[in-house]
Amino acid sequence: MENIFKNKRWHLYHLRWQTSGLVIAPFVYLCQWLGAPLWMGVIIGNGVGAIGYWFYDKHCIFKKEK
Predict the structure, then answer these.
(1) What is the rounded CA–CA span in Å between residue 60 and residue 52?
(2) The domain containing residue 53 runs over which residues?
(3) What is the three-class DSSP state of 22?
(4) What are the helix (H) ranges across the chain?
(5) Does some domain include residue 5?
(6) CA of residue 62 relative to chain centroid, distance
(7) pTM for the whole thing?
(8) What is the number of other CB atoms lying within 10 angstroms of the CB of residue 59?
(9) Contact 48, 21 (CB under 8 A)
(10) Nearest to 39 by CA among 47, 19, 17
(11) In Å, what is the CA distance from 22 to each residue of 18, 25, 60?
């Protein structure tokens, strides 16, 4: 079994995973400030994050290694 902690792609994916909370937080805060439900902010934040991180994942994490 491969040691994932020595895998560069694992570290990139983990870093991206951790920063996703920073993407979601402003949308949650904005929706709460506007009086919208919490779930709405989470869904909007996840949608925006999915669009932005798709490019990062495609070109940095899941690109084919030569």
Answers:
(1) 13
(2) 19-66
(3) helix
(4) 8-34, 38-56
(5) no
(6) 14
(7) 0.67
(8) 9
(9) no
(10) 47
(11) 8, 5, 19
